[in-house]
Design brief:
With about 100 residues, the chain is of the alpha+beta class. It has one domain (about 10-80). The protein is built from 1 helix and 5 strands. Strands 4-3-2-1-5 form a 5-stranded antiparallel β-sheet. The longest helix has 19 residues, at about 65-80. The relative contact order is 0.18.
Length: about 100
Amino acid sequence: MAIKPGTVALLKSSQEPVFVLELVQGDAGILSNVQAVVRRPVEGNAGISHMIERFYIEELETLEERHTRQIAEMEEMKARFSPRSDLPIPNDTFQPN
């Protein structure tokens, strides 16, 4: 699913949810030149308020993209810590010579 106005996206750096209001052309020569104008909830002493901010589209990800990335990271960790099948299984019993 692509990021478009009216969708909820997540900031890649903090996983904070933001509501995408519109996509606009940004500064030339920086990333894809597409910026998302978003409404971001901010918690303060008076409760939750909302700020309007801009982020480059590359700084955002959809929920589906986040889950896909997290699954790939978990699979990588699983492979890293799983016992290798090509190594011999050590004998747990001590046998003196």
